[in-house]
Write a structure and sequence with these properties.
Elements (H helix, E strand, L loop, with lengths): L1 H31 L2 H4 L2 E6 L6 E2 L5 E13 L9 H8 L3 H12 L11 E4 L4 H10 L6 E11 L5 H4 L2 E3 L2 H6 L9 E3 L2 H5 L1 H5 L3 E7 L5 E4 L15 E3 L3 H11 L4 E7 L4 E8 L12 H10 L8 H4 L9 H10 L33 H7 L2 H12 L7 H13 L18 E2 L2 H8 L19 E2 L2 H12 L3 E2 L5 E4 L13 E2 L4 H16 L14 E7 L7 E8 L6 E7 L9 H14 L5 H9 L5 H18 L1
Parallel strand pairs: 2-10
Antiparallel strand pairs: 1-8, 2-3, 3-4, 3-5, 6-7, 8-9, 10-16, 11-12, 11-20, 13-14, 15-17, 18-19, 19-20
Helix pairs in contact: 10-20, 13-15, 14-19
Length: 622
Amino acid sequence: MQNLERRKVTFYLIFGLVALVFLIRLFYLQVINTKDIEAGRLEEIVYPSRGLIYDRYGKLMVYNDAIFDLMIYPKQAKNIDTLKLCEIIGISKEDFVSRIYDIVHDSLHYRSTKPYVLEKELSERMYATVQENLYHFPCLTMQSRIDRKYDHPSGAHLLGFIREVSDQDIAKSKNYYARGEGIGKTGIERSYEDTLRGHKGISYFIQDVAGQKKGPFKDGKFDIPAIAGTSLTLSVSVELQNYGEELMQNKVGSVVAIEPETGEILAMISSPGYDPNLLIGREKNRNYQILNDDPAKVLYNRPLDAMYPPGSIFKSMQALIGQQEGVLFPETRYPCHRGYPVMGGKPGCHSHPSPLDLIQSVAYSCNSYYCYVFRSIVDEKRFPNIEDGYRNWYDKIKQFGVGQRLGIDLPFENGGILRSVEYYNKVYGKNSWKSSNIISLAIGQGELGITPMQMANVVAIIANRGFYCVPHAVKKIGENGTIESRFNERHKIDIERKYFEFIIEGMFQVVQSGTASNCKIEGIPYCGKTGTAQNPHGKDHSVFVAFAPRDNPKIAIACVVENAGFGADWAAPIASLMIEKFLTDSVSRHSMEDRMKKGNLIPAVYMRDRKKEMLRDSSKTR
């Protein structure tokens, strides 16, 4: 009896021990170590929808379109019909082997459970063919990604484009991106990449021994959902942008329009431009190379990077500084004899009444007048030498945002050129130069370079009677979001408000009876300033800045048309038409509009080089 009890106890102990071993093993497999189960687990990236981009009135500018990549799990690419696969996707067997080798030997990023791009952005025809044959190739899968689409063939330099990430992009993102993925490279797409891109998700699934998907891993318990990117509302008016690009077609130059009170960019035109839809899809790399090789530099962002001598538009700043320094007054008159008399008529000037007072000097854009004004500022008696006088002038000019980056929300902004005392000491020698050596600065020539964005900002300061907000292209982030607080800050110029009124009256007279009298707009009193920027490489550049209306201005604009002559010939008509379009939503001066749209000012050297490129391209295709 006792032996029987012992046997039963022993049996229960053995049975319990076996059960405990199984329970421990099961717990180990399911909780502590899922290695055996996960041996059949694979993962796929789930790409988020990229944020949409709207204009200031809610019109869609940029949206998304699905594209498909053919992905491969290299570890499973065994015993497949390689020749058939290569035939389907149109590559050689050597190319296939090379691609697999590169994937597997990328020691930093390769993981056997992840798929890798074998062929990007399949065409519709290839996509259909691959889908029909996918069951023959368990190692393959299709992955959906997002590509951009543009509702309007304009705004390319403002919006920017997406290109494949570089190794530097991957490293900088701490491996958020993988090879083959896209990233914003220019424009809004670059500046707001982190906002627009969203966050990628991961989908896990299991497969059988044949490599076929059998369903989600653990019912999707460990899946990470993708988070869509945040949409942006731009400050840009797509109507004004489109209209400006029409006016600037077949011309080299740029237009920047700003809402003065807020610094919001209403339009930013770089010409020649291009259709942003050229840089999406399978042909984007080929198209990029064509655009990059264009002799007219269509990818060059002129509003932000091109520097021009400001010419006569610089005189408005000289007049403001002179008044603030107490060396210039409304009744101040200086002579002009077709040039600056003190230096034998150089710089030269055009014919106009003489002598002029302050308001008239702005209206008639007298070069001689501003040579006197400039010398009275830098040679002021309270300064012991030219260096101190020039530093004072230099600091005042910098307040207008000249010679430095404004800090806009777009990449690759050029700060322009404004030379320091040290520069002139190096050129002429310390204590060996005077105001007459740098007199060309008086009329916006010489060692000066200002971008069209800076020009628009200067005229916005005048429109505001002494302040500016940093120009920016994004009005709102998200549905109810805001923008960086720095874009709402007012930067005040150290010049009293009362002094602006004389300059504004002079600019008003420019349009009423002065150098831009051919560009009056019925019912809209506005202020402008023509400029003719000297160009050592050809015909002078046509420049015009303006704001409208005169009181409570809603738009400040700068226009540069290269190799176009006087400011009143091309820049002023284009800017005035855009002002009228923005304020009235219509245009009354149809003959002027027609002339601007049809005018072809592309320099002959660009046209000649373009023809050569076309001939070269055609010879390649024969």
